[in-house]
């Protein structure tokens, strides 16, 4: 992967970024990272050489680049069949627990976090939940904390997903959980949800975990698909270490656990369960 005009390669860009910041994207998949770097170059009208120079001389620009290359799309109840499984098959298992530890890794702007909170509330489990949500993007974390989404682009799809999860005739009112203001073009999460989540900026790849907790549920959907196989294995191993035995990891619909780590989980529907053991209902 080389910039035709300057001869500088994407790998040289990644090395410069690693040297000048805490971020290491060297184990992201080539296709995903190259497309995003190309877009940064186009948006800023820079050659690769100029981009690398800016990285080495402008720390504020480094943050702008990181935000640009870590943007991921998300939505409320994305892949409704996954959330149906979580609602009907997975979450009822926690009815006898006194506390449920949950981590959303790579939470983006929070739609997945609030999707799960709706299900937890519907099953009267939300008060038991201790919820952490992390993402590398500062902007994503700040937007997630606000819990406000665009109405015009999202309402029809979000409401359709919502009804698909619960069933057309059984779904609670969408507006029980989200305040919709078409005039202001906003969908706002109800205030009582906002203070329930501990949002933390965190880089899965190169930063130590910001907590010592082990978890009953870890969500990391549509994140590791952007990593190369080696990094995927490292991240899955880390998730395995953070899960209680018998607890569950939920990945994206097109993500799988392969290689040696596959022997440490059993798969049921979209859920990977850490094998071997018993979890005390503390």
From TrEMBL:
What residue stretches are annotated with the CheR-type methyltransferase domain?
Answer: 10-278
Q: Fetch the InterPro entries from UniProt.
A: Bact_Chemotaxis_MeTrfase (IPR050903), CheR_C (IPR022642), CheR_MeTrfase (IPR000780), SAM-dependent_MTases_sf (IPR029063)
**Alphabetical list of Pfam families matching this protein:** CheR
Record GO terms (molecular function): S-adenosylmethionine-dependent methyltransferase activity
Superkingdom is Bacteria
Stored SMART domains: MeTrc
State what protein this is by name: Protein-glutamate O-methyltransferase CheR
């Amino acid at each position: 992967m080389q910039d035709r005009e300057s001869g500088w390669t994407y790998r040289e860009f990644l090395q410069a970024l690693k040297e000048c910041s805490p971020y290491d994207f060297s184990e992201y998949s080539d296709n995903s990272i190259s497309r995003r770097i190309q877009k940064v170059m186009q948006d800023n009208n820079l050659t690769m050489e100029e981009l690398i120079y800016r990285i080495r001389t402008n720390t504020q620009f480094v943050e702008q680049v990181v935000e640009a290359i870590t943007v991921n799309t998300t939505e409320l109840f994305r892949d409704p069949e996954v959330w149906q499984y979580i609602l009907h098959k997975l979450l009822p298992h926690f009815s006898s627990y006194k506390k449920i530890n949950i981590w959303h890794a790579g939470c983006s702007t929070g739609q997945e976090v609030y999707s799960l909170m709706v299900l937890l509330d519907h099953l009267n489990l939300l008060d038991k939940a201790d919820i952490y949500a992390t993402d590398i993007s500062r902007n994503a974390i700040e937007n997630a904390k606000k819990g406000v989404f665009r109405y015009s682009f999202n309402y029809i799809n979000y409401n359709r997903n919502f009804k698909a999860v619960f069933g057309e005739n059984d779904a609670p009112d969408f507006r029980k959980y989200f305040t919709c203001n078409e005039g202001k073009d906003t969908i706002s999460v109800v205030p009582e949800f906002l203070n329930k989540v501990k949002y933390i900026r965190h880089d899965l790849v190169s930063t130590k975990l910001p907590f010592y907790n082990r978890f009953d549920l870890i969500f990391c959907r549509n994140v590791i698909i952007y990593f190369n196989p080696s990094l995927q294995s490292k991240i899955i191993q880390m998730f395995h270490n953070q899960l209680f035995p018998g607890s569950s990891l939920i990945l994206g619909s097109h993500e799988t656990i392969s290689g040696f780590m596959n022997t440490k989980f059993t798969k049921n529907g979209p859920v990977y369960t850490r094998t071997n053991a018993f979890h005390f209902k503390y």
